[in-house]
Specification:
The protein is of the alpha/beta class and 279 residues long. The chain has 11 helices and 7 strands.
């Protein structure tokens, strides 16, 4: 049972009872879709048991507060006819408020893959922070964050089809590898009709990305060169070359990063070897 404080000082981090009418929604709320059936169930639970976890808000003026986290609970409280709700007040700026709202939804897994990507994009773009900084604050690898942002290359219609067909994020990441929107539509048609797995989808996209064979009636088809699918063979070759250079006195430096789609391997070779003087 929550009690209302007699003196309205609204200290940082203290539990307070606030009027539902005084709380504005968070403009940076990443979640866009709220299931009415789910909200009705939550509203009934709130009628019976109250709100067990307080909402997080920040103060905008003497009588107005902005929601940081707890959009579903606030909506359900309105449906349940509650006039007052328990809240914890935080002193945070716009950027921190947006970050906390996104983190809460990610931790609860309340977002679709595209709502998550849109929330990250707003955080990076509106508040001018780097992808690396955003990844660190959200507790994910920078390559993971970059892959999520790439999903926004899909059109709104394509996103709706992916969600309606209950395809996974890995399906979506495979589809976005196609540079042409019409090709993505064609791929979606095949994936949905055939109910392809992620592995089968990857193979389909690989086939669609292969350049068409150019053959004429007068000229024989060019001899096909076997394609080595395991790129680790090439990476091992690069590693051996660098090792040989170092044994020869060349202080080559390397760095490597890897995402789901590619391996980036950088080799820096100095113009002079160890012990060689610059003339």
């Amino acid at each position: 049972m929550f009690s209302i404080k007699s003196r309205d000082k609204r200290p940082e981090g203290q539990l307070m009872m606030l009027a539902v009418s005084s709380i504005r929604p968070n403009p940076n709320q990443p979640r866009r879709n709220f299931d009415e059936y789910d909200l009705a169930g939550l509203a009934e639970s709130i009628r019976c048991n109250g709100i067990l976890q307080p909402l997080a808000v920040r103060k905008l003026s003497e009588s107005i507060y902005e929601l940081i986290a707890g959009e579903r609970r606030l909506r359900a409280a309105r449906m349940a006819g509650m006039q007052m709700v328990p809240c914890i007040i935080h002193k945070v700026d716009d950027k921190r408020s947006a970050l906390l709202s996104l983190v809460e939804n990610l931790q609860r897994r309340d977002l679709s893959m595209f709502e998550e990507a849109e929330g990250i994009a707003r955080l990076v773009g509106h508040y001018r922070i780097t992808q690396q900084e955003a990844a660190e604050r959200l507790g994910m690898a920078q390559s993971t964050l970059a892959n999520k942002l790439r999903l926004l290359k899909l059109t709104a219609a394509q996103r709706d089809r992916i969600l309606s067909a209950r395809l996974s994020e890995r399906h979506a990441r495979a589809i976005v590898r196609l540079p042409d929107s019409k090709e993505r539509e064609r791929a979606l048609d095949l994936i949905i009709a055939r109910q392809l797995t992620v592995s089968e989808t990857d193979k389909l996209i690989d086939q669609m990305l292969e350049p068409p064979a150019q053959e004429t009636a007068d000229a024989p088809a060019p001899k096909r060169i076997p394609l080595i699918r395991d790129v680790r063979l090439f990476v091992n070759s690069i590693t051996k070359v660098v090792s040989t250079m170092r044994q020869s006195g060349v202080d080559a430096k390397t760095s490597r990063s890897e995402t789901d789609d590619y391996i980036e391997y950088t080799v820096i070779i100095p113009k002079k070897t160890s012990g060689q003087k610059v003339g």
